[in-house]
Fold:
Amino acid sequence: MIPRLGTMRLACMFSSILLFGAAGLLLFISLQDPIELSPQQIPGIKFSIRPQQPQHDSHLRISTEKVTRDSPSGSPRGLQLQAPDQPRPHRKAAGSPLRLRQRRRRLLIKKMPAAGTNRGNNSSETFIQPRPRTMDSRWVSLHQTQQERKRVMREACAKYRASSSRRAVTPRHVSRIFVEDRHRVLYCEVPKAGCSNWKRVLMVLAGLASSTADIQHNTVHYGSALKRLDTFDRQGIVHRLSTYTKMLFVREPFERLVSAFRDKFEHPNSYYHPVFGKAILARYRANASREALRTGSGVQFPEFVQYLLDVHRPVGMDIHWDHVSRLCSPCLIDYDFVGKFESMEDDANFFLRLIHAPGNLTFPRFKDRHSEEARTTSRITHQYFAQLSSLQRQRTYDFYYMDYLMFNYSKPFSDLY
Structure:
């Protein structure tokens, strides 16, 4: 009886050891599975690019984990891309797919960098280096300018929008982005920052016109020749965000605001006067005339600013004076090229050279509308803002603070804090 009891105890101990060993082996295998922690290298022409790797679920979700890609055949003329080594393929581990996927997603989130983190000399940073025959101070200066603009933008995002690294890109975030498939370009439209001429350039790049001068204003803004990124399905959006060169152009916020006001309220307009003008005059002008309330014409700049700063504004925001940080989501989408309206000619033509645009295509200089009227300049902007009180100027600066910070524009008035 006693030997049989001892034998049973030994059998139980042996079974327990086997069970613990098997459980430990499964745990070790699940922790070693690198499928979702090692993003695949995706080919594509890039200018200092860290593309976004899609998560695989039933909705449009794009991780902000950045991946560097390399495309020797598609790199800009005269440039050499130093790309990291290609990752080796891994074998998928056995086990419950759902439990392993959840475990790997938790590990991935722990390893995910915050949006805007300065990557320094990390190997994932693709560096564009001109060949000796094309090395000149102007090219180097333009490249360094791009690096600095993106650094400032990333730091602003890291400081104020750190939670963006965990957010998902939705069709709403890409609704202002236009697609040009031939040269693999995504352009985020910022109104009053050269957007009309940029859309003309995209149409020429796409082969829809032979010259930017041949494209009329209504064709640019009311035609359907150019597709927006949100018109594609989930796979199409993910693919283009991951492999295309993403760029946007910005403008000094006060100057952009005055330009929008002059265009929409100081000239006849069949949309902005009845929709915005009538609401603004009814709310902010004491003893407004019946004619003004009927047509919505004659809005003054201080009245327009009152509307802009009113948290209970009688009519919604408009893309012509909305924040760039809202229009293009630069803390969520890692733009590869950031141009400025103030240096439009140099920046635009530098970008066209990078994407292998035809040699005879340059950015157009003509004014899209009201060509007889002077462009909005810093001097004109100051004249309009002189009509405001110091408190209104401060509140307007606060309204556009993120745009000033992200794109490194200085304070336009000395009394601003």
Residues 29-133 have pLDDT under 50 and may be disordered. The CA atoms of residues 176 and 189 lie 6 Å apart. The chain has 15 helices and nine strands.
